[in-house]
């Protein structure tokens, strides 16, 4: 399954401006030039992380992406986390951009999800263009509840670890290239000790020729680039462009989601579940580490600060490393005019005060993050529909338009592309009255 914990409620969008849709070859207009990962056009934060270059007004509408930075992120406090209503692209001042309600607890960050919300998402401000990325975490639990640790590119390239809240002894792995859903890309690793009650170490080792997924230091799956050749598209269907690291908790089992999403997530979310603490589901992330690898051989380079695309093919050889600016002056600015607006003009939950202004902070209701968060129906990479599911809302193309089809990752029980089975660590997640008190504070924050 594509892992998506994209979670800012739709109420963040200003009601006075009718959102313009983009994707599937439909580009944004010049006055709202940036196509968000949710398929809507806007300015400001729409032009930062997640901005889809192909379906924006032009490739230049999206702001250049900060280059990879090797670092281990601990969560003793939330100082490195900035809400997406405040972040303007300065990665030197923030490690993560948040939607929803993150909470610090006992040296970890809790991603919370209460009734009436669509969860919490953290996205790294720096991109990774090949590297080793690890996360130590315990998942949320319960029907319809999905925890995710993924790499997601603006090109819709994607590499996933996902966890369904009714499958507490397994982890799902997946990958996508340019948002094209392939029914056969998923894998399932079983035999883990309770992923909600115990911390595990999950790692994605992403190299130009291979991707390796590991759990607690044991390799559970390997993907070879050579095995992904797509003769129809005349390219490798292999993730190969800069990606952000994303951590999320989202409600796959909302009644407003597609039937395929709900079924995959284990049913409807139960808002009186014993897995909730004081009215909240939670996933706990203890640490995230990023080790950057060198750019691929022959990479285009004219600087060292940012990644840009010079062609809408969205492949390795269309990425360029530059010294281009990554910071907007205001939430009315775009990659086409990065100094537009006033630095004192900040976004708010109600959007711009001017009724004619385009949206400046993207969000969605219900769906998860990534290419396939809504999972309406099964669409294979050739555009054909897989049997046994409801119909999708359109197939993806090789130009980076994400499908909303439901992809049930089957995988096999062995081999380089299939499922694995391993044991796990037994470090219990801390719970008790203090935890309940701390989580209860979230309710005060969101009232």
From TrEMBL:
Record-linked PANTHER family: GLYCOSIDASE CRH2-RELATED, GLYCOSYL HYDROLASE-RELATED
Low complexity bias locations: 343-353, 377-405
UniProt-listed SUPFAM superfamilies: Concanavalin A-like lectins/glucanases
EC identifiers of the protein: 3.2.-.-
Active site residues according to the UniProt entry: 158 (nucleophile), 162 (proton donor)
Class of the enzyme per the UniProt entry, highest EC level: hydrolase
Localization per record: Membrane
Stretch list, region Disordered: 343-412
Ranges of compositional bias, category Gly residues: 364-376
GO biological process, one term: carbohydrate metabolic process
Catalysed reactions, as listed in the record: Random endo-hydrolysis of N-acetyl-beta-D-glucosaminide (1->4)-beta-linkages in chitin and chitodextrins
Keywords attached to this entry: Cell wall biogenesis/degradation, Glycoprotein, Glycosidase, Glycosyltransferase, GPI-anchor, Hydrolase, Lipoprotein, Membrane, Signal, Transferase
Name of the protein: Crh-like protein
GO MF annotation: an example: chitin binding
Cross-referenced InterPro entries: Beta-glucanase-like, Chitin-binding_1_CS, CHR-like, ConA-like_dom_sf, Glycosyl_Hydrlase_16
């Amino acid at each position: 399954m594509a892992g998506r914990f994209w979670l800012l409620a739709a109420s963040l969008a200003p009601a006075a401006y009718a959102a313009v849709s983009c994707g599937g070859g439909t580009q944004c207009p010049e006055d709202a030039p940036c196509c968000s990962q949710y398929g809507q056009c806007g300015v400001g934060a729409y032009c930062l992380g997640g901005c889809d270059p192909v379906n924006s007004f032009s490739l230049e509408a999206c702001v250049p992406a900060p280059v990879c930075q090797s670092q281990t992120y601990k969560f003793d406090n939330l100082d490195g986390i900035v809400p997406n209503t405040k972040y303007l692209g300065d990665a030197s001042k923030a490690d993560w951009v948040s939607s929803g309600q993150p909470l610090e607890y006992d040296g970890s960050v809790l991603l919370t999800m209460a009734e009436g919300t669509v969860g919490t998402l953290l996205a790294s401000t720096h991109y990774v263009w090949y590297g080793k990325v690890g996360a130590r975490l315990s998942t949320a639990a319960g029907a319809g509840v999905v925890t995710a640790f993924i790499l997601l590119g603006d090109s819709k390239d994607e590499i996933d670890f996902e966890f369904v809240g009714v499958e507490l002894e397994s982890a799902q792995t997946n990958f996508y290239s340019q948002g094209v859903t392939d029914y056969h890309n998923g894998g399932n690793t079983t035999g883990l000790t309770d992923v909600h009650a115990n911390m595990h170490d999950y790692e994605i080792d992403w190299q130009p020729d291979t991707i390796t997924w590991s759990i607690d230091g044991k390799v559970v799956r390997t993907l070879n680039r050579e095995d992904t050749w797509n003769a129809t598209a005349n390219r490798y269907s292999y993730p190969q462009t800069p990606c952000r690291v994303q951590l999320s908790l989202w409600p796959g089992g909302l009644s407003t989601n597609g039937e395929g999403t709900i079924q995959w997530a284990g049913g409807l979310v139960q808002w009186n579940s014993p897995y909730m603490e004081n009215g909240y589901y939670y996933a706990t992330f203890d640490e995230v580490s990023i080790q950057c690898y060198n750019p691929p051989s022959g990479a285009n380079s004219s600087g060292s600060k940012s990644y840009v695309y010079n062609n809408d093919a969205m492949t390795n050889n269309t990425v360029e490393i530059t010294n281009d600016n990554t910071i907007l002056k205001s939430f009315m600015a775009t990659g086409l005019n990065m100094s537009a607006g006033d630095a004192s003009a900040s976004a708010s939950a109600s959007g711009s005060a001017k009724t004619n202004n385009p949206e400046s902070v993207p969000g969605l209701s219900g769906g998860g993050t990534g290419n396939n968060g809504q999972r309406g129906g099964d669409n294979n990479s050739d555009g054909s529909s897989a049997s046994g599911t409801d119909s999708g809302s359109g197939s993806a193309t090789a130009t980076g338009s994400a499908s909303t089809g439901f992809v049930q990752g089957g995988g096999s029980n062995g081999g380089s592309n299939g499922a694995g089975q391993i044991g796990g660590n037994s470090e219990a997640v801390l719970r008790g009255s203090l935890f309940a008190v701390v989580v209860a504070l979230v309710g005060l924050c969101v009232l």
